[in-house]
Amino acid sequence: MPNANVLVINSGSSSLKFAVINSVNGDEIVSGLGECFGMPEATIAWKLNGIKTEEAITAADNHHANAITRIVKLIEDENLTDTIVAVGHRIVHGGEKFTKTVRIDSEVLAEIENLSDLAPLHNPAGAKGIHAAMAAFPSLPQFAVFDTAFHQTMPQKAFTGAISHELYEKYGIRRYGFHGTSHYYVSREAAKMLDKPVEQCNFITVHLGNGASVCAIKDGQSVDTSMGFTPLAGLMMGTRSGDLDPGIIEFLMKKGWTQEQVFDTLNKKSGFLGVSGITSDARGILQAMEEGHEGAKLAFQVFTYRVAKYIGSYLIPLDALDAIIFTGGIGENSLDIRREILNNLNLLGFVEDKKGNEDARFGASGIVAKSELLDALAVVIPTNEEFVIAQQSVELL
Ligand code: ADP
């Protein structure tokens, strides 16, 4: 297909990421980010042919629509209009309704809006992006790719919380999992690397970015994942706590903390930031550790220990393991963090491939360790969620 570019839109409550992607080879023709929506300092910036451009966007009442208008102009100015065959939207929550990528019509859009109860920050923002893109590109088909969809294959025992079943029936409280597009992509790429049909592959995928999650993949399908009803569950993250004793919430509220204060702390002031007391950024943690910062050292230890514990526990739903797959900004780049996670998994017999670990960084995939005991590898696969959104949109065309 000669003209097979897709405009990929990831619309957040105060930001909008976009890219024009070649759905065949994944080349990014232009990519950009609108930020600070709803505030006077809202901007939109993009990268084209290696050159960065930034502009202010005015009219605070509808920054999403104004950002899209600017993107339309950019696309026209660059003569890309005729090359774009679809718009692909990243949507955070598809609930139990959406198990794969779908073409957006009024019914799908209404469902996405209905699911706002489960993702009050994300789904309304995603819907805003869809409305704006539909108005701007009335003749282009639009597709929704859901963060939750890949995990809809989890068995009931993995997605059911050990709480009153009525809460599931009444409110839909269960494990949904997120980062599905990333877990899907890296598992498919790893299967290619192993030269094995993905339907016969068993993986533990470890996505470590600002948000972080682990997924157990059996015969190519998600069977468990560490994020839950919300993205707050599971691993320690940049600013999120991950798993914690829910009794702590009651304790803090009895101490006079409001619900907002508690959840602000758990979402925005915990994780690397909370434990280290200095930064949410893994590079900053590693740097501070080198300088002897005790908080950073502790944050590194807690983070790597917890990732290893999850990997260990995800051997349970699998009968065999082909590979542990590291991805995300941290998983793709930090050999120290990968090394420490594997050190914590001593009993599984992984032996580091030092050169492999050093080489698999900054966008390169590769093998970082091997376990003879499990007949398994540890590999790095750079994730590419935008490419999946572009590919799946075109596949459905
Ligand atoms: P997001 O979840 O926002 O997409 P990323 O996947 O880009 O985030 O990951 C961001 C994280 O990756 C940050 O903590 C950053 O410090 C970390 N990171 C990026 N490059 C490196 C590096 N060279 N070494 C260690 N950590 C890195």
Automatic annotation (TrEMBL):
Lineage of the organism: Bacteria, Pseudomonadati, Pseudomonadota, Gammaproteobacteria, Vibrionales
Matches recorded under SUPFAM superfamilies: Actin-like ATPase domain
Active site: D147
Subcellular location: Cytoplasm
Primary location class: cytoplasm
Family (UniProt): Belongs to the acetokinase family.
Keyword Aminoacyl-tRNA synthetase: no
Binding site for ATP: K17, H207, L208, G209, N210, G211, D281, A282, R283, G329, I330, G331, E332, N333
EC code: 2.7.2.1
Gene Ontology molecular function terms on file: kinase activity
Cited function: Catalyzes the formation of acetyl phosphate from acetate and ATP. Can also catalyze the reverse reaction.
Residues given in the record as substrate binding sites: R90
Names of the cofactor(s): Mg(2+); Mn(2+)
Catalytic function, reaction form: acetate + ATP = acetyl phosphate + ADP
Top EC class of this enzyme: transferase
Pathway info: Metabolic intermediate biosynthesis; acetyl-CoA biosynthesis; acetyl-CoA from acetate: step 1/2
Organism: Vibrio ulleungensis
Transmembrane annotation, as ranges: none
InterPro entries: Ac/propionate_kinase, Aliphatic_acid_kin_short-chain, Aliphatic_acid_kinase_CS, ATPase_NBD
Amino-acid positions noted as binding Mg(2+) in the UniProt annotation, renumbered to this chain: N10, E385
Residues the record marks as site: Transition state stabilizer: H179, R240
Keywords tagged on the record: ATP-binding, Cytoplasm, Kinase, Magnesium, Metal-binding, Nucleotide-binding, Transferase
NCBIfam families on file: ackA (TIGR00016), PRK12440.1 (NF009099)
Assembly notes: Homodimer.
Protein name: Acetate kinase
Comment on bound cofactor: Mg(2+). Can also accept Mn(2+).
Alphabetized Pfam families for the sequence: Acetate_kinase
